Amino acid sequence: MEVEDILKIIDSLADYIVYFYPGYLTIYIFYFLRAKTLKDENKIIAKAVVISFLYKLCVDKLPLDKFPLGRIPLDAEIIYHALMMLIAVIVPYIAYRIQGSEKIINIFKVLKITTRFEDNEIDILDNQEISAWLKVYMKDEKTVYEGFLGDKELEPGKRQFISLKKYRKYILGDDGRPKEPYIEEHDSDDDVVVIFYNQIKTIEKNQI
Length: 208
Description:
Elements: H1 3-17, H2 21-33, H3 42-59, H4 76-99, H5 102-110, H6 121-125, E1 133-138, E2 143-153, E3 161-171, E4 184-185, E5 192-196, E6 200-206
Antiparallel strand pairs: 1-2, 1-6, 2-3, 3-4, 3-5
Helix pairs in contact: 2-3, 2-4
């Protein structure tokens, strides 16, 4: 293969990479907004190609060569890729905001759609506005933690945990009630306990 052939291949990459990078950027930003790790898997690559293709179908319909550029001598190809990147950033942000919208949830209820956007049961318990007060029963069947839900990490493949703020810890008696005095009782947001998910038996959401 001669140098000219290699240069032709390199030049042609710009024509094909547009079928990948906008979709991948969209998925990456969406995962970032949801605090999830983007893993380079075949299904991610396939989704990126599909999303990029849809973007391309839309942008190809725009008469970019007729856009008024004013005093800035921009090439139509530069505008094309800049627009692709702009769409790839805006779309995942809009999708992220829609997932947390009460209006969308209400529309789903009216349409009797039971699909939920939450990834796990803790997200279902947490309404994102006021921290949920959780009662966490440990697997030893005696120890219980209560407190406001703080940080959490429940992504598969990582060590999963939840944290409770202003928490209290106690032992259940034979009658199912807390033994007094409590083992620990804290009133500050700075007092936090981390509970690893594999140690939990049951979680209840309660009113204070």
